Amino acid sequence: MISKHTLRISLAALMVCASIAPVQAQTDAQKARRCATLAGTADYYLTRRGEGSGGPNMIVLGARLDCEKGAYDRGISTLEKLLLDKRIPLPPDA
Fold it and tell me: pLDDT tens digits, residue range 1-52?
């Protein structure tokens, strides 16, 4: 039979785990929005347009793929570095 002490510890641990999960999901959603905002800004300023232009920026495409795979931190840092290196101001957080 389970003691009351063990039951209380188990319930406390369950409550802690349950309270952490929604925070992580929210953080991922915020990172996904940030990644999309940065990628949109990079596309706007860094995509070459016109005949013989060379097309999209491959670094931006790679960062977008990182974000789609859930590697938000890597995608965000790549996009921020790319924009800052080109002296393009970062968009505000959404």
Answer: 666 655 455 555 545 445 555 555 558 899 999 999 999 999 999 887 767 7
pTM flag (> 0.85): no
What does the alpha-carbon distance between residue 21 and residue 28 come to, in Å, rounded to a whole number? 11
- Asked whether residue 78 is assigned to any structural domain, the reply reads yes
Rg (CA), the chain: 21
> What DSSP string describes 45-83?
HH---STT---S-HHHHHHHHHHHTT-HHHHHHHHHHHH
- 10: in domain: no
